[in-house]
Design a protein that fits this description.
By secondary structure, this protein is mainly α. The protein contains 46 helices and seven strands. The strands form two sheets. The chain has a five-stranded parallel sheet with strand order 2-3-4-1-5, sandwiched between helices. The protein has a two-stranded antiparallel ribbon with strand order 6-7. Helix 5 runs antiparallel to helix 6 and helix 12 crosses helix 16. The protein starts with 7 loop residues before the first helix and ends with a helix.
Length: about 950
């Protein structure tokens, strides 16, 4: 007889079961011929044992068998004679036989209650009972063959199994077939009976394995559209378990079948999968459930030894439980095959059980030397800190989380540590760490911890490094007097701690002088060691930054300061210890008006801050990028960055730094003539101490430009003079910081007050850098010069502004130069210059920001291409056209993918061929010619 046919749901579950079905069919044929047997079918939970048994029983009934069935359960394992009761419950017996069977079952159950059930060697059922029940079943098999099936026989009671074993030994020549299914690896509490059962000559053992990838493909065929997911993907998720696989298919079809639902994610797991997982756990080996729970709580692979230590007496065999979970298809190499499995396991646990297990995990991992972050995650889940190691581990984990930019994790650890009973010093360290972590997200939210730390710091009970962190917070929020006082208090403590602490204090004092130049004048300075003599990375950075600050304060922006700033930006990553140095280096490049360099560095750092999810860094860098864009004449971009700075964290959280973005927006609104918006910005609250910092200078200058734009010349003069007085008093009179002299000259000029000397003074202060400010100063000088001299000065201004990269100032200078050339009768030059200004204004979206100046002779036809231009090579023409549009050499090099040196060589040849001396003399026709040949 061949294998039996499978239909419907059974067919779905019985893929790759042809060999087993054929062996069952063979046993059935032998039974029909009068040769009784027993067949055991084992396999992992969910492998299809029940489906195979159900399909075989249906086929046996069709062949004339009487089928008596029973299904064992873990919860009924202690019910003596329970399985035998189920078997006889389906039997059609004569009344007298029924009465006899009932009496025997009751007697056996009562006797079992009176005996020691832990003594596995003793017979639990009297021989008379076994003989009577076995005889009844043999009598039942005389008129028709008898099939007795017990599903999940590993949960059967020992009394019933003794009775069945008695029958098995007597069916060799009877038409009785007994089929028992059981989960592989399960250890029934009656091993002696198992051994005797399997040793019977008429016992046949079948083993079901999980499906292969080919079997998975066969099961899924015609049920779902594989799409981009190959059968191997489904096999990987389910392990080949028919139960888990069909549950995944059910969930997939439930989601994809929704008419208006979203696209179904492949491998989606829902209610059916959750139920299937729980079925596996509760029907499988008793050791599997605690092991799988432990894995779900751990969230990572674990060795059997670690699991044994973790579970203790709750799990007699962690290795067996892990093996069972692997065989079932739930786990592979200690990891859940499907990511939803852990959630399904945890959802079925009570809150108390989860907390207890997390607490045990934390203790075991700590004893085994796990990483602090790993231990802390479980301590957080348990919310317990009674262990003496808890607070140190939580603090270490917070530090590690901060290094990994997981600020949320760090805050969770520190908040839990804060709840513990610790001494004043430990609590202060926790509050300092909270201050550092909170500052990353929003400095305003860190204020509470600063208040907690102040009395501890004043009492001298705060470590110098933590006190310095507090100093920086006070500086940030405009409390310079408190910061200076605390610095003085720290000095002696730091000296006692050692040279590294003393160096840190000296460097912070230098930074204090940078942010509050007026307040720091009387603080004194300490000689700093040379950075090259230091071995520590942090110490080197502190000293190099302090040297840049002192160099700028002492003599303005030098070539060495710019080189050092570039080197620091190249060598250091943005973090809690480097951000101040990085900001100072970027500001140094801005002071030098190396705007292209500053923009490139700032863009990269902004992306890094965004990737690492630190809003305060992003706000700081956005504010600085807004200043850079403003000085490049790109108002839309400047406004976008300034608004970002004010929205990433609460404006008040920017402290004194708020002066930066507000000044940018105020200048932009003034340029656009949006005076109502400017007044709104001026109404925003700012710290009084901001006016003791360079940000106050930016604010005063922006407010002065607003007053000047609306005709309030006296108010503008007051702001510009106040700005200048502060810069002179602070000995920080740097043209790149705030060109107050040209602003003041322009305001006085509006009142017909002689002020030409101010622009000349500003020019005299400009050194190697600040070509943008030099161009602005030349424009102001040109405003009061006689006509011929004005044109010369404006040409020089155009040259400087083009090199400085300020497109807005360049467009305005070009417009003024065109007007001067027109007044001199140089109509062709005026036309070229004015058209160039218009072209740049269009390119940089500045049409509404500059005075409308029609190019003289616009109605004339476009002049023919200059024959001399035709002599330029294609490469020379491309470089010259970009230069005529206002691009700097660095920008041209980036656009054309050539070196700056190559750009300079091309321009030198262009100047020689066109017989011109400077960039501003490049003809506008170069741009049109480039378009015509593009």
């Amino acid at each position: 007889m061949g294998g039996f046919m499978l239909v419907g749901r059974d067919r779905e579950l019985l893929v790759e079961r042809d060999r087993e079905s054929a062996q069952l069919a063979s046993s059935m044929a032998e039974c029909l011929s009068g040769k009784g047997a027993v067949v055991t079918v084992s396999g992992p939970v969910g492998s299809g044992k029940t489906a195979l048994l159900r399909a075989f029983a249906r086929r046996a009934v069709e062949a004339g068998f009487v089928h008596l069935s029973a299904k064992a359960s873990r919860t009924e394992r202690g019910a003596a004679m329970g399985i035998m009761g189920q078997i006889f419950g389906g039997a059609r017996l004569p009344d007298d036989t029924t009465d006899k069977v009932v009496r025997l079952l009751d007697d056996a159950a009562l006797t079992a209650m009176l005996r020691d059930r832990d003594d596995e060697s003793a017979d639990r059922v009297d021989v008379q009972v076994r003989r009577g029940l076995g005889g009844a079943l043999l009598e039942l098999a005389e008129p028709a063959p008898l099939l007795i099936s017990v599903d999940d026989a590993h949960f059967a009671d020992a009394e019933s199994m003794q009775c069945l074993l008695y029958l098995i030994r007597r069916i060799e020549s009877a038409r009785v077939l007994i089929v028992l299914t059981g989960t592989a690896g399960m250890r029934p509490p009656w091993p002696r009976l198992v051994a005797e059962l399997l040793s019977q000559p008429n016992c046949r053992q079948l083993r079901l394995n999980l499906l292969s990838p080919e079997g998975v493909a066969s099961l899924l065929a015609d049920r779902i559209d594989f799409g981009d997911a190959e059968p191997e993907f489904w096999h990987r998720l389910s392990g080949g378990s028919p139960l888990l696989l069909n549950a995944l298919v059910e969930d997939h079809l439930a989601v994809s079948g929704a008419p208006d639902g979203p696209p179904c994610p492949v491998g989606v797991a829902g209610e059916a999968f959750t139920q299937a997982v729980q079925t596996c756990l509760y029907r499988g080996d008793e050791s599997m459930l605690p092991v799988v729970r432990a894995l779900a709580v751990l969230g990572e692979p674990a060795s059997p030894a670690l699991l044994s230590e973790l579970l203790g007496d709750a799990c007699p065999s962690a290795a067996g439980g892990l093996e069972a979970a692997t065989e079932t298809g739930i786990v592979d190499a200690g990891l859940f095959r499907h990511p939803r499995t852990a959630a399904a396991v945890l959802d079925a646990m009570s809150t108390h059980d989860r907390i207890e297990l997390h607490d045990r995990v934390a203790h075991v991992l700590y004893r085994n030397g796990a990483a602090a972050v790993t231990v802390a995650r479980h301590a957080l889940a348990a919310r317990r800190t009674e262990a003496p190691w808890s607070v140190p581990v939580l603090r270490e984990a917070a530090d590690q989380a901060m290094e990994q930019d997981d600020t949320g994790m760090a805050l969770d650890c520190l908040r839990l540590a804060e709840r513990s009973r610790v001494d004043v010093g430990e609590r202060a360290a926790i509050h300092a760490a909270l201050l550092r972590a909170k500052w990353r997200l929003d400095p305003m939210s860190a204020e509470r911890y600063a208040r907690e730390l102040m009395p501890v710091a004043h009492a001298g009970r705060l470590r110098s490094d933590l006190a310095l962190m507090l100093v920086k917070h006070l500086m940030w929020f405009g409390r310079p007097a408190e910061a200076a006082d605390l610095l003085d208090r720290i000095t002696d403590v730091a000296a006692a701690e050692g040279p590294d602490s003393a160096l840190a204090v000296s460097c912070v004092r230098a930074r204090f002088g940078y942010f509050y130049p007026g307040a720091a004048k009387d603080a004194g300075t300490e000689a700093l060691p040379r950075a090259s003599t230091l071995t520590g990375v942090t110490g080197k950075l502190r000293v190099r930054t302090a040297n840049i600050v002192e160099a700028v304060q002492r003599g303005g922006v030098t070539e060495e300061a710019v080189a050092d700033a570039q080197a620091i930006l190249q060598q250091y990553r943005l973090d809690d210890h480097t951000w101040e140095s990085i900001i100072i280096c970027l500001e140094t490049l801005v002071l030098a008006e190396c705007l292209d360099w500053a923009a490139d560095w700032c863009d990269g750092l902004l992306q890094e801050a965004e990737d690492r999810r630190v809003p305060t860094w992003r706000a700081l860098l956005s504010a600085l990028r807004a200043t850079i864009s403003l000085r490049q004449g790109n108002l839309p971009e400047a406004e976008r960055y300034a608004h970002a700075a004010l929205s990433l964290i609460r404006p008040k959280g920017l402290g004194v730094f708020i002066g930066g973005p507000i000044s940018v927006l105020l200048l932009a609104a003034t340029r656009r003539g949006q005076f109502d918006e400017a007044l709104r910005l001026l109404a925003m609250p700012v710290p009084d101490a901001m006016f003791q910092t360079p940000f106050g200078l930016y604010y005063l200058r922006a407010r002065g430009r607003f007053q000047l734009a609306r005709g309030s010349h006296k108010a503008a003069i007051e702001d510009f003079e106040a700005c200048g007085e502060l810069m002179v008093r602070w000995e920080l009179d740097l043209p790149g910081l705030a060109p107050w002299r040209t602003d003041l000259a322009e305001a006085r000029r509006g009142l017909d007050i002689a002020a030409r000397h101010l622009a000349a003074e500003q020019l005299a202060k400009i050194g190697l850098y600040n070509r943008r400010t030099k161009g602005i100063s030349l424009r102001e000088l040109a405003a009061t010069a006689e006509l011929k001299q004005r044109a010369v000065l404006l040409r020089d201004a155009v040259e400087e502004l083009q090199a400085g990269g300020d497109q807005l100032e360049l467009v305005e200078a070009l417009g003024e130069l065109g007007e001067a050339q027109q007044a001199l009768g140089e109509y062709a030059k005026a036309r070229i210059t004015t058209r160039r200004a218009q072209q740049l204004a269009t390119r940089y979206e500045l049409e509404d920001l500059v005075s409308a100046r029609a190019a003289p002779g616009d109605e004339e036809a476009e002049p023919a291409q200059d024959p001399v231009i035709e002599e330029l090579s294609d490469a020379e023409r491309r470089v010259a056209a970009l230069a005529a549009q206002g691009h700097t050499n660095q920008q041209i090099a980036r656009k054309l993918f050539i070196t700056v040196s190559t750009v300079e060589q091309h321009l030198t040849r262009v100047y020689r061929k066109l017989r011109i001396n400077r960039r501003s003399d490049l003809p506008f026709s170069l741009v049109a010619g480039l378009r015509n040949t593009a």
